[in-house]
Amino acid sequence: MGPRAVARRRPAVIVWVIAGLALALLVLPVLGLLLSAPWPALPALLVAPETLQALGLSVLTGLVSTALCLVLGIPLAVVLARSVAWPVVPRRVLRAAVTTPLVLPPVVGGLALLLLLGRNGVLGRYLAAVGITIPFTTGAVVIAQTFVAMPFLVFAVEGALRGADRRVERAAASLGASPLRVFRTVTIPLVAPGIAAGAVLCFARALGEFGATITFAGSYPGVTRTLPIASYLASQTDLDQSIALALVLLVVSVAVLLGLRDRWLPGVRG
Amino acid sequence: MTTRSPFRCRAALLAGTVSSALLLAACSGPSTGSPAPAPRAADSLTGTVTVLAAASLTEVFGDLAARFEKLHPSVTITESFGGSSALAAQIVQGAPADLFATANEATMKTVTDAGLADGTPRVFATNVLTLVVPPSNPAGITALSDLAEPDVKVALCDTTVPCGSAALALLAAEKLTVTPVTLETDVKAVLTKVELDEVDAGLVYATDARTAGSKISQIAVPDAAHLINRYPIVALSGSTNQAAAHAFEQFILSSTGRAALKNAGFGTP
Q: Are A216 and A146 spatial neighbours (Cβ–Cβ below 8 Å)?
């Protein structure tokens, strides 16, 4: 079936059935979480100091990571979009490098960060020599989150750049705008929905980060123990507390998604 | 999951190649040229035994499983290691397992209280905490009391796992106030942080310190001997392979099991 046929005809019944199964797989676990939530005890669990501490840390690090992803990721997306004109080898190497954190198990990513930035790491030993140690700090949480979340932003912005009408940029340049001015006043507004979509995905991924964080940053209340880590630790001894923490995570994520306009959501072009 | 929980699965290689007829022949005498170690008796044990065990048992249980499989070629032992409380939570949530061994009696109680144990847990080993530092000992630690110094980076287990509650008890007994940089989810994760020289010191079990060998240095903590962790084991009522599960439990409790545990640095009850 070609793309034109898909657009014009209604999908077959089997497509509806499979789509329903897919949706069930996505939604039912969350429903299970809601059904087993300790509702009467929930208010007390939600305002417990440990919950608020983990929530505060998660939101703070998630926002800082997203900001870092935007600052570093948008230029990288521009380069990646331009790389279609490059020879095949460097083009593929660049794309693979950006994709790696997506396919790497987060724990392995955390270990890699530790071996690079740990006080005995390839770079970390020089930082340690001047008195900077990164592991076990809130900064380490931000680095771990940025590492795993950046590809989401880069690919969202790159997709928007490829879909955008680049002639406007050329027009601006022909009217005498400098490359930086074109980037700032034409390119960025052109792909703003892509940037917003990427930032949402980025924040959501940072908020849910677990493996790289616990390996690279450790787990200490108020410093590195984010909501997912607190929820995991609680699940070993106090399932109610664990579900409460998971619900907080769920509410924050869904609120971010619902708070954005439709056309800014990933995959939707307005 | 935890940063280190190897899911070991050994295929019983002999099972496919040695037929029951050959087994019987091997029992009556060396009539075939097969050099494979033959079981002592014709043996009805078959299938898989899934063992969930405390992270500190990783090496010794791996070794005992390999030896048990040699004795019973039709049995495959599958082991999953992790923090005792995480494993207990998995069992309460219905994880399919046959045998459960924890690093203290409190975590075992979660499973027995839920009515999931088949019989009474039996203590098969004991362990004590010890202080480990990277070989270069960057913070110049000579005694447990050094952990209370403000600039010393210390890794401990979280208090939700046995090694963490043991560490808390030890530090409280010594009246030390320690602010760790991280509270890890199992004892092997603490050891890894020390081995990588990312922290100045950690409290781990004596057996883990022995396994790590020259990758760490050990500093004696004389008073730790008073705070002993007792390791219980129990077969689970949800087991689908009761016979083999009990056989492996007996093997761990046997003189062979005790010798292996002793050799790994565990105390025996």
A: no
Nearest to B13 by CA among B67, B104, B74, B87: B74
Name the DSSP letter for residue A96.
Answer: H
> What are the φ and ψ backbone dihedral angles of A36, each rounded to 5 degrees?
-95, 5
What letter does residue B200 receive in the DSSP assignment?
A: S
Beta partners for residue B79, in sequence order: B8, B51
A115 phi-psi bin (left φ>0, alpha ψ -120 to 50, beta other): alpha
Q: What's the CA gap between B64 and B66, in Å, rounded?
A: 5
The Cα A56–Cα B224 span in angstroms is: 37
- Residues from chain B contacting residue A228 (CB–CB below 8 Å): none
Rg (CA), chain B: 20
What the block records as the tokens of A258 is 């619902």
Structure tokens, B95 = 């994880």
For A33-57, the pLDDT digits (tens) are: 899 888 888 888 888 888 999 999 9
The residues facing B53 across adjacent strands are B81, B101
Q: Of B91, B86, B67, nearest to B77 (Cα)? A: B67
Rounded-to-integer distance, Cα A223 and Cα A89, Å: 42
> What is the DSSP-derived secondary structure letter of residue A12?
P
Whether residues B183 and A219 touch (CB distance < 8 A) is answered with: yes
Contact check, Cβ <8 Å, B198/A224: no
**Residue A207: φ, ψ to 5°:** -60, -35
Question: Residues with Cβ < 8 Å from A132, sequence gap 6 or more?
Answer: none
Burial pattern B181-213, b for ≥16 Cβ within 10 A else e, equals: bbbbbbbbbbbbbbbbbbbbbbbbbbbbbbbbe
* Cβ atoms A224, A141 nearer than 8 A: yes
Beta bridge partner(s), residue A109: none
For an interface test with A, which of B52, B110, B161, B183 has the most A Cβ atoms less than 10 Å from its Cβ?
B183
Chain A residue closest in CA terms to B184: A219
Q: What is the pLDDT of residues A161-187, one digit of tens each?
A: 988 888 888 898 899 889 889 888 888
| Contact state of B185 with A233 under an 8 Å Cβ cutoff | yes
* DSSP summary character for residue B125: E
pLDDT at A120 over 90: no
Helix, strand, coil percent content, chain B, rounded in steps of 5: 40, 25, 35
Report the C-alpha gap between B195 and B200 in whole angstroms: 10
Tokens matching residue A264: 């800014």
Inspect the interface and report whether the beta carbons of A236 and B85 lie closer than 8 Å. Answer: yes
Residue given tokens 């009696």 in the structure block: B105
Query: pLDDT, tens digit, for every residue of B210-228?
Result: 888 899 999 988 888 888 8
Reference B49, options B233, B254, B242; nearest CA is: B242
